[in-house]
Amino acid sequence: EHSICICRGALVSTAIQYSHSTVIDREAIALLVYRFYDEVRADPRLGPSFEAVLADHWATHLPRMVEFWSTLVLSTRSFSGNVFSKHMALDGITPQHFERWLTLWFATTGRLFSAPVAERFQTMALGIARNIHRGYFNDDADFARITAGLRHAGH
């Protein structure tokens, strides 16, 4: 068991190394998670929602997200938790939150990884987002609209 600590300075050099990479390892996942959530926090739609929930907990949340994605992609089994129930407890979530989250995820994975690797992360994210979207809205047609918009945007 080892932990990941990525400082902002290290992200710059690591980002160059992983640009359009075909490598999926723990370091690549950490880079993705930290880069992605930097964008989420700066986003006018998502940032306030995430800050309202996480505020002073980013330092513990981001490593958990690294473990979550490592468990999904690398089968590390280093994450345990109920993602669905955690998200169902949040108020004020709209379909536009899903659309924006997925747009940022697709853009970030597309910048960091080769197309096959990015598509792997994107497919997993779509499955997770679809299940959580169903939990909130029970509207597969709306989720299909969101995913069609992603494809139309070239993601």
Description of the molecule:
Helices cover 74% and strands 0% of the residues. The protein has helices at residues 8-18, 26-42, 46-54, 58-74, 83-88, 95-112, 115-137, 140-152. Residues 1-13 have low confidence and may be disordered. The relative contact order is 0.13. Helix 2 (26-42) packs across helix 3.
Topology at a glance:
Layout: H1 8-18, H2 26-42, H3 46-54, H4 58-74, H5 83-88, H6 95-112, H7 115-137, H8 140-152
Helix pairs in contact: 1-2, 2-3, 2-4, 2-6, 6-7, 6-8
Residue runs with pLDDT of under 50 for 5 or more positions? 1-13
Distance between the termini: 35 Å
Question: How would you describe the shape?
Answer: globular
How many runs of DSSP E, i.e. beta strands? 0
- The secondary-structure class comes to mainly alpha
Count of DSSP-assigned helices: 8
Largest β sheet strand count, sense and barrel closure? none
Q: Could you give the order of the helices and strands?
A: HHHHHHHH
What is the helix content? Answer: over 70%
* Quaternary structure annotation: single chain
Q: Compute the gyration radius: what is it?
A: 15 Å
Strand content: under 5%
User: Mean pLDDT score, rounded?
Assistant: 87
Task: Spell out the key features of this protein.
8 helices, 74% helix, 0% strand, globular, mainly alpha, 155 residues, disordered N terminus
